[in-house]
């Protein structure tokens, strides 16, 4: 891949904007063939009240599918990227009802979280997309310690 971080961001967006469960599954399979792990999660409700649930769903889905390991470092990467994505859409959606999807993608040390939302406002719908990226150790680097005496 030319730029791993750019391709991972594109992948998270592609998964988040799928319009059906079957399209989502097809996209996840296509990305898997490229070595990119991905997952999508539906979200909805009042944005302000849903922020903790959005972050939790991103974290649980990432762990459940093996995109991240169950460790503090990986948790922080997903939570940080999810919060960044939320901040990017919050200006349009604060105080309003939203419905949409979170897309998460990882390749090596790059992980991106995309939030794609339809924002309800009377009979009109606004659309917003937010994207967060973090770097974390690739799986083979996680088992090595920065302190050699701890590795023994």
Topology pattern, helix = H, strand = E:
HHEHHEEEHH
Number of helices: 6
From the N-terminal CA to the C-terminal CA, the straight-line distance is 35 Å
Helix content: 40-55%
General description of the model:
It is a single chain. The protein has 152 residues and is α+β, with helices and mostly antiparallel strands. Helices cover 49% and strands 30% of the residues. It is globular and about 50 Å long. About 3% of the residues have low confidence.
Could you give the topology of this structure?
Blueprint: H1 4-16, H2 21-33, E1 37-46, H3 47-64, H4 72-93, E2 97-107, E3 110-121, E4 124-135, H5 139-142, H6 148-151
Antiparallel strand pairs: 1-2, 2-3, 3-4
Family: Belongs to the HutP family.
Protein name: Hut operon positive regulatory protein
GO molecular function: RNA binding
């Amino acid at each position: 891949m030319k730029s791993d971080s750019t391709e991972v961001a594109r992948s998270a967006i592609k998964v988040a904007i799928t319009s059906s469960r079957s399209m989502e599954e097809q996209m996840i399979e296509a990305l898997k063939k490229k070595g990119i792990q991905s997952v999508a999660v539906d979200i909805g409700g009042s944005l302000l009240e849903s922020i903790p649930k959005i972050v939790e769903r991103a974290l649980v889905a990432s762990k459940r599918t093996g995109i991240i390991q169950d460790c503090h470092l990986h948790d922080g990467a997903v939570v940080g990227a999810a919060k960044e994505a939320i901040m990017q859409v919050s200006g349009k959606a604060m105080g309003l009802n939203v419905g949409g999807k979170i897309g998460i993608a990882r390749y090596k040390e790059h992980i991106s979280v995309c939030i794609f939302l339809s924002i309800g406002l009377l009979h009109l719908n606004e659309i917003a997309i937010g994207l967060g990226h973090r770097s974390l150790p690739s799986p083979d680097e996680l088992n090595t310690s920065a302190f050699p005496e701890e590795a023994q």
